[in-house]
């Protein structure tokens, strides 16, 4: 494992790679963030494509990430995280809708728990999942960051900056 930290509009992001593949993107004070000493040595050379794509995202010119990911979790968690990647930029779905899309319509709470343990925030867009009424419920990076990311995506679409 190796890691680096990059600046972003939502604060510092710690990028973690396992065998050269992105396995973590953690925000400051993120819930379920592993201990810093578990990330391995600092090695920024492993993260060139990740940094470029994050810069493009925050510039409003990238709406989808195209990176190899090492999603470490249970089969159910990985299924939820994969489904998150299908939520279009600037749109939201509820936990119940995501559960139904996974063929588990009664598993909204389990989807929420898996969503909260997403190890690759922003790139695996767990911020696009909201409560059944459309309200901003829990987010591992904090509700303020969730609101900031959703507002940013909506504004980018409104201004027509994204491609």
From TrEMBL:
<dbReference type="InterPro" id="IPR001497">
    <property type="entry name" value="MethylDNA_cys_MeTrfase_AS"/>
</dbReference>
<dbReference type="InterPro" id="IPR014048">
    <property type="entry name" value="MethylDNA_cys_MeTrfase_DNA-bd"/>
</dbReference>
<feature type="domain" description="Methylguanine DNA methyltransferase ribonuclease-like">
    <location>
        <begin position="2"/>
        <end position="71"/>
    </location>
</feature>
<feature type="domain" description="Methylated-DNA-[protein]-cysteine S-methyltransferase DNA binding">
    <location>
        <begin position="75"/>
        <end position="154"/>
    </location>
</feature>
<dbReference type="Pfam" id="PF02870">
    <property type="entry name" value="Methyltransf_1N"/>
</dbReference>
<dbReference type="GO" id="GO:0006307">
    <property type="term" value="P:DNA alkylation repair"/>
</dbReference>
<dbReference type="GO" id="GO:0032259">
    <property type="term" value="P:methylation"/>
</dbReference>
<dbReference type="Pfam" id="PF01035">
    <property type="entry name" value="DNA_binding_1"/>
</dbReference>
<feature type="active site" description="Nucleophile; methyl group acceptor">
    <location>
        <position position="126"/>
    </location>
</feature>
<dbReference type="GO" id="GO:0005737">
    <property type="term" value="C:cytoplasm"/>
</dbReference>
<dbReference type="InterPro" id="IPR036217">
    <property type="entry name" value="MethylDNA_cys_MeTrfase_DNAb"/>
</dbReference>
<keyword id="KW-0227">DNA damage</keyword>
<protein>
    <recommendedName>
        <fullName>Methylated-DNA--protein-cysteine methyltransferase</fullName>
        <ecNumber>2.1.1.63</ecNumber>
    </recommendedName>
</protein>
<comment type="function">
    <text>Involved in the cellular defense against the biological effects of O6-methylguanine (O6-MeG) and O4-methylthymine (O4-MeT) in DNA. Repairs the methylated nucleobase in DNA by stoichiometrically transferring the methyl group to a cysteine residue in the enzyme. This is a suicide reaction: the enzyme is irreversibly inactivated.</text>
</comment>
<dbReference type="InterPro" id="IPR023546">
    <property type="entry name" value="MGMT"/>
</dbReference>
<dbReference type="InterPro" id="IPR008332">
    <property type="entry name" value="MethylG_MeTrfase_N"/>
</dbReference>
<dbReference type="GO" id="GO:0003908">
    <property type="term" value="F:methylated-DNA-[protein]-cysteine S-methyltransferase activity"/>
</dbReference>
<keyword id="KW-0808">Transferase</keyword>
<keyword id="KW-0234">DNA repair</keyword>
<keyword id="KW-0963">Cytoplasm</keyword>
<dbReference type="InterPro" id="IPR036388">
    <property type="entry name" value="WH-like_DNA-bd_sf"/>
</dbReference>
<comment type="similarity">
    <text>Belongs to the MGMT family.</text>
</comment>
<dbReference type="InterPro" id="IPR036631">
    <property type="entry name" value="MGMT_N_sf"/>
</dbReference>
<keyword id="KW-0489">Methyltransferase</keyword>
């Amino acid at each position: 494992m190796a890691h680096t930290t990059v600046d972003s509009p939502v604060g510092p992001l710690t990028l973690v790679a396992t065998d050269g593949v992105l396995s973590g993107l953690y925000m400051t004070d993120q819930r379920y963030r592993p201990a810093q000493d578990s990330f391995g040595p600092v090695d920024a050379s492993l993260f060139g494509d990740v940094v470029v794509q994050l810069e493009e995202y925050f510039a409003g010119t990238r709406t989808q990430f195209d990176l190899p990911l090492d999603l470490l979790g249970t089969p159910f968690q990985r299924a939820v995280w994969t489904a998150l990647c299908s939520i279009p930029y600037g749109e939201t779905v509820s936990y119940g809708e995501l559960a139904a899309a996974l063929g588990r319509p009664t598993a909204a709470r389990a989807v929420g728990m898996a969503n909260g343990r997403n190890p690759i925030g922003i790139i695996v867009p767990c911020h696009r999942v909201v409560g059944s009424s459309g309200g901003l419920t829990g987010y591992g990076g904090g509700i303020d960051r969730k609101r900031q990311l959703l507002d940013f995506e909506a504004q980018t679409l409104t201004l027509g900056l994204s491609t």
